[in-house]
């Protein structure tokens, strides 16, 4: 019976109310609760008809946050263009202020370094792996160089004789 409902909805269409369009061209629709001719009730839905139909073409930010909140039912009323544009201006203002603050902080740090109030960040040179520390020589020794706590492994090479035990 599900295939019949799908066929009829595709034939006669679903009642959609266009709620708005964002600055990217995405269209947003509200589909109210409906009763089918078979007596089934479909709940209300909020959908988006994207400009770019393929999923891999989308990136974060292609759907404005205000519209996404409306689709996810975090807000009742759809956003207006003025609201979206005001939020975009506010985001740009925050970016500009944070950049200015970053530059100001950078200058303050440089001044403190020059005055000697703050030490320069140290540069460490990491060699090897944490479980195999670097002891100063790159070449392994033929014999172990020490015993007990300061043991440093050496390398072993087999002798040239071809003696085998029978």
Write the layout of secondary structure elements.
Elements: H1 2-12, E1 17-21, E2 27-31, E3 34-35, E4 41-42, E5 45-49, H2 65-71, H3 81-115
Antiparallel strand pairs: 1-2, 2-5, 3-4
Describe the protein in words.
With 166 residues, the protein is an alpha+beta fold. The chain has a domain of 78 residues. The chain contains three helices and five strands; from the N terminus they run H-E-E-E-E-E-H-H. The strands form two sheets. The protein has a three-stranded antiparallel β-sheet with strand order 1-2-5, with helices on one face. The protein is flat and about 90 Å long. It comes from Geotrypetes seraphini (Gaboon caecilian). Belongs to the complex I NDUFA12 subunit family. Pfam families: NDUFA12 (PF05071).
Order of helices and strands: HEEEEEHH
Q: Which of globular, elongated, flat, extended, rod-shaped describes the shape?
A: flat
Radius of gyration based on Cα positions: 35 Å
The span between the termini is: 83 Å
Protein name: NADH dehydrogenase [ubiquinone] 1 alpha subcomplex assembly factor 2
Pfam family, one: NDUFA12
Family: Belongs to the complex I NDUFA12 subunit family.
GO biological process, one term: mitochondrial respiratory chain complex I assembly
